[in-house]
Amino acid sequence: MLAVHTRLNQQRFTPDFTIMPHQVRYHEPRWWKESVVYEIYVSSFKDSNNDGIGDIPGIISKLNYLRDLGVDIIWVSPHYKSPQVDMGYDISDYQKIHGPYGSMKDVDTLIERTHALGMKIIFDLVINHSSDLHPWFKESRSSVDSPKRDWYIWRPARYDAAGKRHPPTNWRSNFGGPTWSWDEKTQQYYVHIYAPEQPDLNWENPDCRRALYDTAIRFWLDKGIDGFRVDTVNRYSKRVDFVDAPITDTADETQLAFQNFTNGPRIHEYISEIRAVLDEYDVFTVGELPNTPDESDVMRFISAQEKQVDMVFNFDTVYLGQTPGDRFRLQNFTKKDFKRELTKWQDVIRDTDAWATVFLENHDQGRSVSRFLSDDPAHRTQAAKVLAMVLGTMTGTLFLYQGQEIGIVNAPPSYPVEEYKCIRSVNHYNKIRRQTGGDPTALEEALDALQKVARDHARVPMQWDDSANAGFCAACVTPWMRVLDTYREINVASQIGNKGSVLEFWKAVIRFRKRYKDLAIYGRFQLIDEHEDLLTFIKEGTDGKVLFTVANLSDQPQRWSLPSSYPMLKPSNLALSTRSQGVDHFSLAAFEGRVYVSV
Ligand code: GLC
Ligand code: CA
User: Fold this and answer.
1) What is the pLDDT of residue 580?
2) Which residues are catalytic?
3) In angstroms, how far is CA 407 from the centroid of its own chain?
């Protein structure tokens, strides 16, 4: 069963309200609801100057490609000055560019060119923490009397009976180990929910908040960007009583503590402040919302009347089979689990003023084809296409991650452990090595988990063509991460203009989604769950028309026919199909998908 639902993570401590989302019959149209957003991971997208690292001019060189794909908005992963302990999610200056990515002039040009092509652009807003090399933190750690001391969260040590020093609480960080690091000079601990080099900012301090609004938000909005993807939007407010988390793992001295540092008592006050800044501009926000399983808590973020963020990323689907607090402890999950989680938020937002995101990939996840269907070479093209079709007909803003549009799959089991670069992967593998004294079976198991769910699979260079280094950088250069060997078969150049390709299918799906937006984007979602291996749903329009999606999630053919409960649907209503020919009305081939639209 899915540990995702462990009650532990659902403990709440501010249950003094119930949210009644504004009931509406149909979703109010907005530009950002109808947009297709494409996430670009700067370091791995396109290297323009052959230093092995992707960069801003590289993105500029591919804008036409994105427009042709049908992308409306690009989301650029953090491009700010950073020591790159966590790939730019550790920012040392909000108003400067990471040197290897380019200059401020390049970023200005990127904004301008994106707009000139009729697309919009959003940046990543990372304000729960900064880098330990941010001047604010340097100043904060310089002395207990520093005027910036209170901009971060400092606490004295605890001592046991034997006089041994311990951190103020037993909380476990998201990258493993304690959330507290000891500062020798000032003899206190500071908190970091992620790496020690990512100290959490103290949102209780109003000067700190104001400085963030000015440097991280206004500065970029004034440059004309169209919104933000808001990193870890629910962690700014923490419980300030700093109590221990319950002991759930006796083998470890740190414990899962999401409930102590997520959705704290002032979270919505802080987000309202951010929103007030954003409301001066015509922009949108999508918040990353980890560890918030209760629907009513999520509604407080996404119901329009709450005026918080416009939509959030929930992780129910992408975390399938993982254990909260330990993504590498894997469990099996079924197609039923996949269908339930994928469609969960469709049901929750139905007939409300809230809005959802539709996504299966980002820079923190393995590849969807490998994770949820099959990356077997015999099936992976069909699998990528059927997922495209499902996502393309769901309600919400559609997010695509670079490489998803050509069906890139995970690195194979033979991928050597040294090639995994992500801090989370490296920490995990080292922990297992430490804990087991290098036991080969345990290490093999750890590598197997990395192969399935490491963040690295999304971070390998983009596969542009079949030249050495996949067209990401010149053949003579060593890219910062190894290019996957599958680039020879899976690459943009071989798919452009190729009728059966994943890329051309994605283009068709995006066109279809826009053409039938009343149904595909705004339609009222209704799951029809009558077959274990099939995902089938209806999207109802305002005018009585319906769209019907059927997807075979298995690698076996299935007998099937149109649902009798919707007599208006006829075989002749077939509007989109993953197969270019040979559609059989009474059966579906392995990973076949179809969309019907009633007339
Ligand atoms: C978010 C980002 C992830 C990063 C973390 C810390 O989860 O998506 O990449 O490591 O925040 O900023
Ligand atoms: Ca470069």
Assistant:
1) 81
2) 231, 288
3) 17
